[in-house]
Amino acid sequence: MKTTAVIMAGGKGERFWPRSRSSYPKQFLSLTSDGETMIQKTINRLLPLVDMEDIFIVTNESYVQLINEQLPDIPAENILAEPVARNTAPCIALAAAVISKKYDDAVMMVLPSDHLIKYEELYRDTMRHAIKVASQGENLVTVGITPTYPETGYGYINFCSSGDEEMAGVYKVEKFVEKPCLEVAKEYLNSGRYLWNSGMFVWKVSSIMNNFERFLPDMYQGFLKMKEAAFTDNFTATLAECFDSFESQSIDFGIMEKADDIYTLSGSFGWDDVGSWLALEKINKTDECGNYVSGDVISIDTSRSIICGNKKLIATLGLEDIIIVDTDDAMLICSKDHTQQVKKVIETLKTCNRRDLI
Amino acid sequence: MKTTAVIMAGGKGERFWPRSRSSYPKQFLSLTSDGETMIQKTINRLLPLVDMEDIFIVTNESYVQLINEQLPDIPAENILAEPVARNTAPCIALAAAVISKKYDDAVMMVLPSDHLIKYEELYRDTMRHAIKVASQGENLVTVGITPTYPETGYGYINFCSSGDEEMAGVYKVEKFVEKPCLEVAKEYLNSGRYLWNSGMFVWKVSSIMNNFERFLPDMYQGFLKMKEAAFTDNFTATLAECFDSFESQSIDFGIMEKADDIYTLSGSFGWDDVGSWLALEKINKTDECGNYVSGDVISIDTSRSIICGNKKLIATLGLEDIIIVDTDDAMLICSKDHTQQVKKVIETLKTCNRRDLI
Residue B169 above 90 pLDDT? Predict the structure, then answer.
């Protein structure tokens, strides 16, 4: 059975303002020193697993041009532009429609476009295992991450033994839980029964669509229409019609939390969701004072800071735990404990009607 | 007797980097919201006291063009370009030479070009008083400032009563003292016998030159030569010759600390030497969080900070006691307790041979 990959690349990534903008979100940024953008890294780490022609990118109409520029080898018909963003369930139904029209049935890896993975070979081993589990029967597989500290910013997966000797290393999902408080996160970590929810899924098209039919029947009807129209002149019009009727729904709430036969694997491959500017010091090298510095920077008596220069010299004196990000038209200077509030700046810009900076 | 003013405008002002540069020092910057530069303010506040044609500006050759641009009404022959900087004593000898050639004798106010005065009418009243005292006899008058807090960054003037009923409000200088530690500064403040040394002087040309003859005889010979050459074709060559021979000497060490008949008046006119970026929050209005902000700035959860924008938006989040100064080619981000170390940045730039940014 064919293995395909569906990359979800419609996110807006407001937390990386001012580098990310509504017209240029995080997945199209390079946040590492190698110059590769997040989505380029996502594709490149998959190529040993799946052919380029079997990688499908679901995105917003306004990002198609960026994808063409950054990923010129992805076939044009594999770039699936949603007429309007309706969260992950419609996005997956759309990709499933195109893939099942092309291959009838196939294994689908569903992957975010803007996460980072340090140990790519370990990642691919985990994905190969997930593909194997998904291709056997009706299993829905969600890739969990072995937690290394009590993170309060992630959802968690509570698992139990599958009880099946043939499924060694694969666990039955007991339930998905929301972002916990620190106390609860510590309990999760100590229990050994929780994984971080990475938002990476593997299943056969037929498996997931059976669950759409059961739990999201209206969306399943849309899937059938989109499959019918795929690779025909009606496709764009059908998409518009279907997405107009779809409710906004995440795959987690819509299916994963309700379906049977959900399995998880515990991945340990240096995963980071790169959720805020703070990630830069985790995913890049820091200097002897704990600073992550890029661009033209003179830092004096400065420690544990993140300084991203642009075209001009940035000189820092006596700073601690400060994030500085320069761009051509806007600059952010933020204490580390305020990184989650970058969206307040965007809200202020909206209030001031300064959409050119958003 | 004529009253003249000598403005010392040769300073380099490294503490206002990156706005000030060696080619554009502090006296030519506007640091207040009215848009006037420091030297323009210095001249404008004097005009009720002295005619434009009696204002002399001593500066470096490289700043003559800037002075012409910022002060187009100052007569060209009143701009005295030192061939090389030799501190304040030679600067004053040069101005004295030109003034005494023009007027034989006259009262000279000697004034920095880069200080700020809030209450200009009170300032002029004090200066009028100083002019009166200076024009009587051989008195050298230094204008003191009534201290309002135990500043450790200024020199102090220790005074005693003049004992002369005709000299009410004028005090005999006991001694000049260097920048004190905080403990000593507090003692000075409590004693009621100390003023801040503002570096503003008033005397007759004949009074100060008698003291040059006594304490700096070589420089006095230079004064005679420069006076002889003033307003002739030989002036530039004579200046070059004299300044080449002058030792670097401040008027404070060279004369004021040695001479008799030094008097001081206590001024209370909102004086500030604008010695670092910290001055901006003293001399300008701050917002309800204690921030001084200029330019295009969004400040969220930010307090007691100084933010000087340039062309692009600066968004701050969660900052306290931080100074941000943006310019076209360089940016400073500095904690308030490091303002005296801005020169470290300049030293680093020198080491890296990046003279374009100094």
Answer: no
